[in-house]
Specification:
With 748 residues, this protein is of the alpha/beta class. The chain is 41% helix and 11% strand. Helix 16 crosses helix 23 (563-583), helix 18 (431-441) packs antiparallel against helix 19 and helix 19 packs across helix 21.
Length: 748
């Protein structure tokens, strides 16, 4: 593009990190829940974080700034509340009490189900929409937020609205989609009219569900809805992301909207535009800056995309093409400039949210010289590890197969009582744990003193489990800040940030590591802590590992190295670790893969390739385990019913699953499938502060017996216990033990 053309290109964002540069909103939420901060203080913290994001985008020179996607907890939950989609069990609650009850639960009232947002590591709350629901508008808070944004940003402020198809596609819907859309249409029209009355001239209508397989099935209903929105008020920018529109492309681009935003960093949007053209008179906002990657743009790739788009006749008109981030920036940290501990060549090719704003404006003016120089320096800094790559290249079919079948190896494994009880791995990360880690990091105590402190915490956790009567124990993972970061710190090829926090759900934040080079394991990673834990008990203690696919999906991998290659490198490192755990006396090893499902491509026709290498990576890690070693895995907060063949193919001896918020759905699916090995469905929700009663757990265990034989059932919480307090954990586990004892007695 020549300079005159570039000067007319507008820029837009689709969202910004929403937890705060120093996790201010996280701390405010947790203080509010603890009764240390009132609602006014919470909202003040929220508005401070929100306005910082607005100002940052304005100062970066962004022309159209997405506003209103910010949230106290979850944006999908927010829209369910704004449209009055409130399950009856929350009807007596109001305001923040209702919002947080729907998110976290309260005694006697279960929270909404929580699951993964498309193929990201963000969790959203699943709306429940039944036959009796009567949507009712409550847009006051959203409109007030938009008014604040307009006061700060003027015409640059563009409200974000979650589109009707996506809201319903992601919900638990017990009425026909067309009926539900018809109920919502008047409220969407009311909302657009209200925004227009504020002077809003453009609204981003976010419809990422259009990229999912099956969108074609709702074409008639969607076309009718958008025809009904065409004259409702402000002009619409229909926003999709995470993949291309696929088969839905021809009719989606003809919907009566003024602009459409497509993701050009994932999927095949460019090929669709080139092959099928673009409607004359409609703006294309091209998402060419990857909102989910921490890496700088590759100038040649982006320039080629824009050159090819400019060759499309209908996009040669001034103003027809707009530059965009591909998605909300909530999936990346705030600023790479704060990461001064990273090597300069690596930091030079990183672009977090603030740097991506700079990339967007630089792209609009055509100056990408800085990116070219940075990539050249990085390539000299991080050469390939040929020994690691040769080890992967030398793998054979035997590396992916256990020596004995499950039926043959199970009698050789540890013998436990009927309905064996265990936990998923972690125990509370208390202030004491955090202070111990902080003192060691700051150099205030020696390694020996730090390890002594960790060992004391481990002894307590083992004593609690042993004393309560659990059957297979865990050491508690007090040495681990995060289930991915811990392993990444002990492997080559990873880099770590100091301030790189991103939101996982609510106030829960994670700091994903960055995979910048080939991966290997220089030394054992978990053997010392396992051995310490095992020394305190005669009961078996599980070795605890995070699986290769989860490590990839919860990190920022290099885009130029195939994920399968990275997964196999990780699988080999974990294989070596399992061998060392066995040598140290481990009778059971748990390799968690909670991210297996979330890594699925959004198009079904791409599932096969992904599931083949993802399950092979797990098998590569575990299949050389001795027949006597019981291999466990854990999965949570995703819908697994559609990938049961892949889960079966993992060939794990025991799988534990999230169950409390999904109403036994995965358990039923496993039973119908005929899953041939052992299952540990969660008996209570660890993401809620509610302590379950023994009767509640007993009822759960009895419901399991309706689906599986008792010798195939394990009993455990939904997930790890690191986010809970000991005051919550101890009575919850007592309730679990009491319930199991009663059921065992009846089973004899």
């Amino acid at each position: 593009m020549d300079r005159a053309t570039l000067d007319m290109v507008r820029t837009q964002t689709l969202g910004y990190p929403r937890i705060g540069r120093d996790r201010e909103l996280k701390r405010a939420l947790e203080s509010y829940w603890a009764g240390k901060l009132d609602s006014a203080g919470l909202m003040a913290a929220f508005h401070s974080v929100v306005e910082d994001g607005w100002m940052t985008q304005r100062e970066a020179g962004i022309d159209r700034i997405a506003v209103g996607g910010e949230s106290l907890y979850d944006h999908v939950l927010d829209w369910a509340v704004r449209f009055g989609l409130i399950p009856a069990r929350f009807g007596a609650l109001q305001g923040l009490d209702r919002l947080f009850a729907m998110a976290r639960g309260v005694p006697g009232i279960a929270a909404l189900e929580m699951t993964k947002w498309f193929d990201t590591n963000y969790h959203y709350l699943v709306p429940e929409i039944g036959a009796g629901v009567v949507p009712e508008a409550d847009f006051a808070g959203f409109l007030e937020l938009v008014e604040r944004a307009r006061a700060t940003l003027g015409e640059r402020a563009v409200p974000v609205v979650l589109g009707p198809y996506t809201l319903l596609r992601l919900a638990h819907l017990s009425i026909p989609l067309g009926v539900a859309l018809g109920k919502l249409l008047p409220l969407y029209r009311e909302l657009l009219a209200s925004l227009a009355s504020l002077g809003v001239t453009e609204v981003q209508m976010h419809e990422p569900a259009f990229v999912l397989s099956g969108a074609d099935e709702a074409r008639d209903e969607v076309e009718r809805i958008y025809a009904g929105l065409a004259d409702a008020g402000a002009s619409l920018n229909l926003v999709t992301y995470y993949d291309d529109l696929g088969d839905a492309y021809p009719w989606v681009v003809q919907l009566p909207v003024d602009a459409i935003t497509l993701d050009f960093t994932r999927g095949n949007s460019l090929a669709l535009v080139e092959a099928q053209g673009w409607p004359t008179g409609k703006v294309l906002a091209a998402g060419v800056i990857d909102g989910r990657s921490v890496w700088r743009l590759r100038p040649n790739e982006v320039e080629d995309t824009l050159r090819r788009l400019r060759a499309v006749p209908s996009l040669q008109t001034p103003g027809a093409l707009r530059l965009s981030i591909s998605s909300s920036l909530q999936f990346v940290p705030h600023s790479a400039s704060r990461e001064t501990a990273l090597p300069d060549p690596l930091r030079g090719v990183l672009a977090f949210a603030d740097e991506k704003l700079g990339e967007l404006t630089a792209l609009a003016t055509g100056d990408l010289s800085g990116a070219r120089a940075a990539w050249a320096a990085f390539e000299r800094f991080a050469p390939a590890d040929e020994a690691v790559r040769a080890r992967v290249a030398g793998l054979t079919a035997g590396d992916f197969r256990r020596a004995l079948s499950y039926v043959e190896r199970r009698p050789k494994q540890v013998a436990l009582p009927l309905l064996p009880m265990t936990t998923i791995g972690s125990f509370p990360q208390t202030r004491e744990v955090r202070q111990l880690r902080s003192r060691y990091t700051k150099g205030e105590i020696t390694l020996a003193e730090y390890e002594a402190g960790i060992d004391a915490l481990t002894a307590y956790a083992i004593g609690v489990q042993d004393g309560l009567g659990l059957d297979m124990l865990v050491h508690g993972e007090f040495e681990r800040t995060d289930m991915v970061e811990f392993f990444a710190q002990k492997l080559t090829g990873f880099a770590f940030t100091q301030h790189g926090w991103v939101q996982s759900f609510g106030s829960r934040c994670v700091r994903p590591p960055i995979i910048y080079a080939d991966i290997s394991r220089p030394a054992p990673m978990t053997v010392r802590e396992f051995a310490v834990g095992q020394s305190f008990t005669s009961k078996p203690v599980k070795g605890m590992l995070t699986g290769p696919v989860t490590i990839i999906n919860w990190s920022y991998p290099r885009a130029d190295i195939p994920r399968q290659e990275i997964a196999y490198q990780l699988g080999l490192a974990l294989r070596d670790e399992i061998a060392d755990l066995e040598a140290a006396g481990a009778k059971a090893v748990q390799v968690d893969e909670p991210a297996l499902r979330e890594g699925l491509p959004l198009k079904r026709d791409r599932w096969g390739i992904y599931l083949a290498w993802a399950t092979d990576a797990f098998r590569l890690a575990t299949c050389k385990a001795l027949p006597e070693t019981q291999v466990h895995t854990h999965m949570c907060y995703s819908e697994f019913g559609e990938i049961l063949e892949a889960i079966d193919r993992l060939d794990a001896d025991v799988i534990s699953i999230e169950n409390a918020r999904s109403d036994d759905a995965t358990l039923r699916d496993l039973a119908i499938y005929g899953y041939p090995r052992e299952v540990g469905p969660g008996v209570y929700d660890i993401h809620s502060p509610v302590v379950p009663a023994a009767a509640f757990v007993e009822a759960k265990v009895r419901s399991f017996l309706a689906h599986l034989a008792p010798e195939r059932i394990w009993v455990n919480p939904d997930c790890g216990l690191k986010t809970r307090t000991w005051a919550e954990v101890l009575p919850s586990l007592r309730a679990m033990v009491e319930a199991v004892a009663k059921v065992r007695a009846e089973l004899g």
